[in-house]
Amino acid sequence: MGNSKPNFAYIQELSQWLDLNPCLDFDARKNILYPLLDQIFCETDKFNIQLQNGLNFEFLYRSNIAKEILLRDLQIPNHIWEPMTTRSVELAIRHRPGSVVVGGAYFGDHALIAAHELRESKSPGLVICVEPNHEQRAILEDNATLNNLSTSILSLDSVLWSSSGLKFSLAASDSHAAVISDEKAQYLSQTIDAILAHQNISDVSLILIDIEGSEEMALRGASSVLSAPPDRAPIIISEIHKNYVDWSAGLAETSIVQCLLDYDYSVFALRDSQSNWSLGLNVPEIIPLDRVYLEGPPHGFNLIAAKDTSFFEVNNFRIVHDVSPKYLRHRDPALHLPLTQCLD
Predict the structure, then answer these.
(1) Quick one: 189 and 330 in the same domain?
(2) Do residue 190 and residue 253 come from a single domain?
(3) Nearest 5°: phi and psi at 10?
(4) Which of 36, 70, 104 is the last residue before a domain boundary?
(5) How sure is the predictor about 110, in pLDDT bands with cuts at 50, 70 and 90?
(6) Residue 151 sits in the same domain as residue 26
(7) What is the pLDDT of residues 227-283, one digit of tens each?
(8) Terminal-to-terminal C-alpha distance of the chain
């Protein structure tokens, strides 16, 4: 190609070939494809993607999420990001329709899925989206309008924390932005309990949080809703990341898991791919906390928890053991690929 920019069609073709011919322990996407995409796209470029359920999303070229969407293996997929988390969001709302809290809502990749499911179930529930990144929150609101879901979405620029009224600023940027205490900052904290009380919401089906290390503090601000009996307590999906949590003594000994166990939740690791990868699974694989393979470089994945253990029945999930929660094409297949292939 010389000094000329690569062609996007060529990158897509190369992506398909590399996906079918992975090199063990070498991430070809991050080391080859991402730099090629960076040569032809910039952060202000905006794209659109349609899902199989009819939802449409606009998104900016701002993160690896955008790169993965552009490199997707299906033109019209069934998810934006994290296919098994997306599936679990759908399952949680179908299990018991009710309002949803999404911490770290970004441009709506999971929030609009939840709103769509509530609409399909004819539930009056609201999806409360907490996203301090003003640019992504604006796109979230535009995406809600684009899909006639504005009345189902409430977007807030707050920070989820264990107490309300504290001031925070954002460190890092975009999808990796974490909050830091800052008395001169513009972002105020709110607890999940306070947000729900202000909206007069008592029926919550799901709390989904991915907020770069603040997940435990958000859960500690949800004591009222977490104390609900099993048939009223929300499903919890929360990221846990080695950069923020010491899991050297095992996942069950981490303070965020202990917080959930204190409320009598059953907790599993949810196997997933942080990409737009069509896995061919309709039953997510979950791992008991004492049987999770955690080795490798610092990484994160999602925990999934429920008080009502019927949620984890075999028709919804499949329990597996001694594997990684991360699906990765370029790592040991015995540890990093799905153990079951339940085709849609």
Answers:
(1) yes
(2) yes
(3) -65, -40
(4) 70
(5) very high
(6) no
(7) 999 999 999 999 999 999 999 999 999 999 999 999 999 999 999 999 889 898 989
(8) 40
pLDDT 10s digits, 282-323: 899 999 999 999 998 889 999 999 999 999 998 999 999 999
Give the Cα separation of 81 and 337 in Å (integer). Answer: 17
Under the banding of pLDDT at 50, 70 and 90, the label for residue 38 is very high
154 found inside a domain? yes
User: Are residues 35 and 148 part of one domain?
Assistant: no
Tell me 323's DSSP state: B
Q: Does residue 325 fall inside a structural domain?
A: yes
Q: Are residues 43 and 181 in the same domain?
A: no
* Domain assignment of residue 34, given as a range: 8-70
Domain boundary residue, one of 45, 70, 95: 70
Q: Given the DSSP bridges, would you call strands 159-160 and 153-156 parallel, antiparallel or unpaired?
A: unpaired
Cβ atoms of 14 and 37 closer than 8 Å: no
- Token readout for 66 is 């955008």
The tens digit of pLDDT for each residue in 40-75 reads 999 999 999 999 999 999 999 999 999 999 999 999
Task: Return the structure tokens found at 249.
Answer: 């003594």
Residues composing the chain: 344
